Amino acid sequence: MGHSKREPDITWNYCDSIPPNRLKVKCKFCSHVCWGGISRMKHHLAGTKENVIACTSVPDDVKEIFVKLLETKGKKKEDCLNIENGTVKGKEGTSKIFQQKTMNEVCKDREFVIQEICKCIYGNALPFNLVRSPLFIQMLKVVGEYGRGLKPPTYHEVRVSFLKKVVDNIQKSLEKYRSDWEKWGCTLMCDGWTDGKGRSLTNFLVNSPSGTVFLKSIDTSDVIKDGKKMFELLDNIVEEIGEEHVVQVVTDGASNLVAAGQMLMEKRTKLFWSPCAAHCLDLILEDIGELPVFYNTIANAKKITTYIYRHTWVLNLYRQYSNGGELARPAVNGDSKPASPYIYEAMDRAKEKIAQNFQMQESRYKKVWKIIDTRWNLQLHRPLHAAAYYLNPRYHYDKNFNPDSEVLIGLYETFQRMVPDIRTRVIIDQQLEKFKGAKEIFGMDMAIATRDKKQPALWWESYGGRGKELQKVAMRILSLTCSATGCERNWSTFDQVHTKRRNRLEQQRLNALVYVKYNLQLEMRQNSREENGDTYDPICLSDIESDDEWITEKENPCLPIDASWMDVHECFGVDEGAPKKKRKRGNYLYLKVSLELGSWN
Fold this sequence. Notes:
50% of the residues lie in helices and 10% in strands. The chain is an alpha/beta fold. GO terms for molecular function: protein dimerization activity. This is BED-type domain-containing protein.
């Protein structure tokens, strides 16, 4: 006798799955994306706020359906507990005793299962936070749904067959980013480091409002000091992404990369090269730290920090009185939201705050200002930053907004580079007048009310439609990141990727693993932000205040790949029977440049 077909879950009537699998689902009412399947979507629609934000657009009758559904589910759990105790109430309220065998079948022994999972984690030295991973939770869910008789994956399946399938799935899933690059543009982010063996390694990612995509990691030891060679490398990657999609390339400010960036701009006449803002801010703070008035304080602070973290008993004593604070703590990543629209204003406000901390006495803060101005003028100030500042409605409609010639020149230089056709630039100039005067849709109540609430690029998408030419340019400018910090992750992983001791097959397989892991981690981070309703501004300017702590900001490690990842499928076509061989950098400065410098004097 065959099994009856299982009816589809009612939740699918109100959400859609996002390819390539059903790990992500999208609400049909508010378009919110949930990671973790329809189980979490039920809570989203019911408004329970259990591990997911509540839907703000769900009709009351639909919400009531899911509230009752979850209540029924909770009742079933309660009945299961009664069964575990050996009793369950019948229709007449009488207790019925179940045989032990039936109880074991209906309510399994969770403690035994968890113990086996934990043994696997302990025995293979897996990190404890694995159990928090959405991938781990989803894996247990599908295994449970499969039920008895699941044959574990073979060594060959894990190492070859399914690795290839996952690589293919990730490459397909990245197509959604490519379609967004066409609309919003993107930033090619690259950053390098030198490992313990003296090799120069460079990582390449692509950032857009949809998220960050990891492309590759290349051993650039032979070309890193040659500006022309680095230009050729950057040029090839721009070609791979599509020149029409790349608005800017961000690197650090090393002289060879500056030269490479200039050559790239000469060949690719529509894109911009920009130095990494985080790197420039690092240099600003390093320069400030070299001033005699601060040098000894900082040196002593570093010694104290080192001493505390090298002595366990001191560290434990410190933690008893620090209310959970650490002298070194993770920081927000720079690719969460586009930061370019804020960097220009942020530098001015930081300078103002520094002056206030010095009681507005010019003799005390002028050296600090000079350092900031020198780095800003020589490295960080770019036409794109000026244009982003001008087009940001939050600042443009402020009563104190008064752009100087530097801002206006940067704005029109940006238009000239991004829009070669003079007739189109004339149209943009006419549309710009309507933006300046808040005319037509720019002056509608909703447009006014959301000037400081929406991300600038999204504001332009909503209210710039009457001027398509200006809207397209503004959206691309305001969608940009201004740093390459998304590249800087767990560098020790690259030591394994780039080792010369591996044969080509093993090298390609490791590249595939790193490509998969890094992009899965980036996707989970993006999903987490979406599910938590992240409204974080990349640079908080509303309340720049002094910080009494001496804090070293560090990034959360993600994971990172070698230049030849593009040949990643080679490792799947090789005969598996063939003989085989055995086998502090990156501080993201969240622009609290307003450290309490005055108190150190």
